[in-house]
Amino acid sequence: MGLLTTASVAIDGSKFKAVNTRDKNFTRGKVERRRAQLEESVARYLAQLDTADRQEPSEELAAKTAHLREKLVKLEGEMQRLAAMEKSMLASPDQQISLTDPDSRSIESLASVGYKELKKNGAFLLPGFAKFVVLKKPATKERAGVNPFTKEPTVFKARPARKIVRARPVKAAKDAV
């Protein structure tokens, strides 16, 4: 058939090995939120144990208190695991840790820095990848024109002034292709 002759082009043949699910990636904020959840659960279980201590003893109540104590032991283990994870997270250079792949990182922190830079300076350079630039588009008035598909006269609506973000690949990215 002659589909591939002397030269062929691969379109987006990128392969990325890093796996970073949100559930297995921990940042400082996520650890603090998880610790608050655990402390709230501990307080709730302790309040339930206090309520159970004030009631008359029965087999059902004994089973319930034993179950609550088991939950408290599990929560204590989770708190210790979280403390160890926080220690290793704070020791890492970017203050985050991934349990699935230690080399992968959350892009959220990079994105938030990029948003701030775009808002402040109007440009953000992601070294080795692209430069993001804010362009200001002026407002346009309503105008008459021709529909390019049907060739019928039409009226194009007015558009307000707006800002758009353009990404321009850096030379290294262009040369890699």
How many domains would you count in the coordinates?
A: 2
Radius of gyration: 29 Å
Structure class: alpha+beta
Helix amount: 40-55%
Output the helix-strand order. Answer: EHHEHEEEEEH
Q: What is the tally of beta strands?
A: 7
Uncertain runs with pLDDT below 50, 5 residues or more?
A: 4-11
Mean pLDDT: 82
| Percentage of β-strand residues | 15-25%
Summarize the biggest pleated sheet.
3 strands, antiparallel
Shape: elongated
Q: Trace the largest sheet across and list its strands.
A: 3-4-7
- What is the end-to-end distance? 27 Å
Please report the number of helical segments.
4
Verbal overview:
This protein is an alpha+beta fold. The chain folds into 2 domains: 22-98; 108-176, IHF-like DNA-binding proteins (HU Protein, Chain A, Irregular), CATH 4.10.520.10. It contains 4 helices and 7 strands. It has helices spanning 28-54, 59-91, 108-121, 171-176, and strands spanning 25-27, 96-98, 123-126, 130-137, 143-146, 153-156, 162-169. The strands form 3 sheets. A 3-stranded antiparallel β-sheet has the order 3-4-7. A two-stranded antiparallel ribbon has the order 1-2. A two-stranded antiparallel ribbon has the order 5-6. Strand 5 and strand 6 form a beta hairpin. Helix 1 (28-54) runs antiparallel to helix 2 (59-91). The protein is elongated, with a radius of gyration of 29 Å. The chain starts with 24 loop residues before the first strand and ends with a helix. Mean pLDDT is 82; it is low at 4-11.
